[in-house]
């Protein structure tokens, strides 16, 4: 009886080995299922990214708003008649990077003036706000008058 039992146990082990550790065994199936779920997750993320990029391409091909937004935020460009003002809180002032004086501005001119941080203005009432708006309008009108007075004799006359 002993040899028959030993042969049957050996035969059972021989049959079970491919089931657990063979090419199509349970451990391999479990690994493949894990890889499949990881790949599905990756595919979902990449599909969302592709959809977002396709929307950006469509915006860039069909409208100028996306181009203007990229020029403003990524390249720091402003329109000719705009003035760029950035308010920085005192906490953020310490974290500002120092600007090298040899970097060109967005208009191709090198600025020799150092960066000046303007603190955030205090809240004003309506009367103070109207007074400040009127002063800004007078300043803008004065700048336009001086620009018009220079006429074609200014530094940009050939443009």
From TrEMBL:
Source taxonomy: Bacteria, Pseudomonadati, Pseudomonadota, Betaproteobacteria, Burkholderiales
Membrane topology term: Single-pass type II membrane protein
Pfam family, one: DivIC
Function in brief: Essential cell division protein. May link together the upstream cell division proteins, which are predominantly cytoplasmic, with the downstream cell division proteins, which are predominantly periplasmic.
Similarity-based family: Belongs to the FtsB family.
GO biological process: cell division
Gene that encodes the chain: ftsB
Biased composition (Basic and acidic residues): 123-133
InterPro entries cross-referenced by the UniProt entry: Cell_div_FtsB, FtsL/DivIC
Subcellular location(s) per record: Cell inner membrane
Keywords in alphabetical order: Cell cycle, Cell division, Cell inner membrane, Cell membrane, Membrane, Transmembrane, Transmembrane helix
Chain ranges passing through the membrane: none
Membrane-side (Cytoplasmic) residue stretches: 1-3
Record region (Disordered): 95-159
Subunit structure: Part of a complex composed of FtsB, FtsL and FtsQ.
Name of this chain's protein: Cell division protein FtsB
């Amino acid at each position: 009886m002993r040899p028959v039992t030993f042969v049957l146990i050996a035969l059972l082990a021989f049959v079970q080995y491919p089931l657990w550790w063979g090419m199509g065994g349970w451990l391999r199936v479990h690994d493949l299922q894990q890889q499949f779920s990881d790949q599905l997750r990756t595919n979902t993320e990449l599909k969302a990214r592709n959809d977002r990029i396709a929307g950006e391409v469509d915006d860039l091909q069909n409208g100028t708003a996306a181009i203007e937004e990229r020029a403003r935020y990524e390249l720091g460009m402003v329109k000719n008649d705009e003035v760029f003002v950035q308010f920085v809180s005192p906490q953020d002032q310490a974290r500002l990077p120092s600007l090298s004086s040899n970097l060109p501005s967005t208009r191709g001119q090198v600025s020799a003036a150092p960066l000046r941080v303007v603190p955030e203005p205090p809240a004003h009432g309506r009367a103070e706000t109207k007074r400040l708006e009127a002063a800004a309008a007078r300043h803008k009108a004065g700048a336009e008058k001086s620009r018009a007075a220079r006429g074609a004799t200014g530094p940009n006359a050939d443009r």
